[in-house]
Automatic annotation (TrEMBL):
Pfam families named among the record's database cross-references: GerE (PF00196)
Phylogenetic classification of the source organism: Bacteria, Bacillati, Actinomycetota, Actinomycetes, Kitasatosporales
Source superkingdom: Bacteria
Alphabetized InterPro entries for the sequence: Sig_transdc_resp-reg_C-effctor (IPR016032), TrmB-like (IPR051797), Tscrpt_reg_LuxR_C (IPR000792), WH-like_DNA-bd_sf (IPR036388)
Name recorded for this polypeptide: LuxR C-terminal-related transcriptional regulator
Span of domain HTH luxR-type: 206-255
């Protein structure tokens, strides 16, 4: 009887130790090279999400069909009280389909940001399941993914997502419209014409330079641009001086105007930056 009376106390002492041991040993990673399996598993987990969905999507804009297919599922999750944070590449702002979709979903409580710097693809559900691209299996297809359930690994993935999210720029679906060869100067109400590029000129800028110039056109402060791109303000200033020389501009304002009218502005930067490791993309 004396020993039986000590069991509840012993269980109370051992309980936290057992839980910590489970955390140390819990979870695993499963390699999946079948796109259909990845999508089916993702759909099941997204449909059952209860608290949070984090998605880092470094590819280009999604098609209208893909957006329509996911809308009901995402709205249902938001209606259940699930928070939804999605990070896209900055270039998707040029897609009218993406802009209209995000404007609608923002109204339902979803949050979106875009980032010009490279980042890795990941989807995290309730901080219990994560899907990331494959870098471990030699010769794996581009859509291959790992389904991760280990708490430590998921914590690291969430940390990487949070860092990229904090550097991103909020997007509520405002369209980024193209230009037809000229643009009004708001200060002087005059037309600013790019006499350097001309309509037949080729692209002369690097992905990093275009990221700097797009922020300039969007009116983003230079210190914010430097932080987002992971460079110092002094380095950013040097890049701007080089770009002024490339475009024959005498001021940052004129540089931004000439860039907005050049072929460089319309260049699709949805692919990863050329000086960064290629981002693999699971099918989902």
């Amino acid at each position: 009887m004396d020993r039986a009376r000590t069991i509840p106390v012993l269980m109370e002492q051992l309980g936290p130790q057992f839980e910590r041991a489970q955390l140390r040993a819990g979870g695993s990673s499963e390699y999946i090279d079948d796109a259909a399996v990845v999508n089916t598993r993702l759909d099941d987990l997204l449909n059952s999400a209860r608290t949070e969905i984090l998605a880092a999507q470094p590819g280009g804009p999604r098609t209208r069909e893909q957006l329509e297919r996911s809308m009901d599922r995402d709205r249902a999750a938001l209606d259940r009280g699930v928070s939804m944070l999605t990070l896209y590449r900055d270039s998707v702002r040029q897609s009218t389909a993406m802009a209209s979709h995000i404007a609608v979903m923002t109204g339902h409580g979803a949050e979106y940001r875009t980032l010009v710097a490279p980042y890795e693809r990941a989807i995290v559900i309730d901080r219990r399941h994560a899907f990331v691209s494959d870098y471990a299996v030699a010769g794996s297809p581009a859509h291959a993914a790992w389904h991760v359930t280990d708490p430590a690994a998921i914590g690291f993935i969430v940390g990487a997502f949070t860092n990229a999210w904090q550097l991103g720029q909020e997007w509520r679906g405002e369209p980024r419209t193209g230009l037809d060869g000229r643009e009004a100067d708001a200060a002087t109400d005059a037309w600013c014409v790019d006499t350097v590029s001309g309509p037949s000129a080729g692209v002369r800028t690097t992905p990093l330079e275009r990221a700097i110039l797009r922020d300039m056109v969007d009116g983003i402060q230079q210190r914010t641009t430097a932080a987002r791109l992971g460079i110092s303000p002094r380095t950013l200033t040097k890049h701007i001086e080089v770009l002024k020389e490339k475009f024959g501009a005498v001021s940052p304002a004129q540089l931004g105007c000439k860039f907005a009218l050049s072929p460089d502005y319309r260049f699709d930067d949805s692919a990863p930056l050329s000086d960064a490791p290629k981002t693999r993309q699971p099918a989902a």
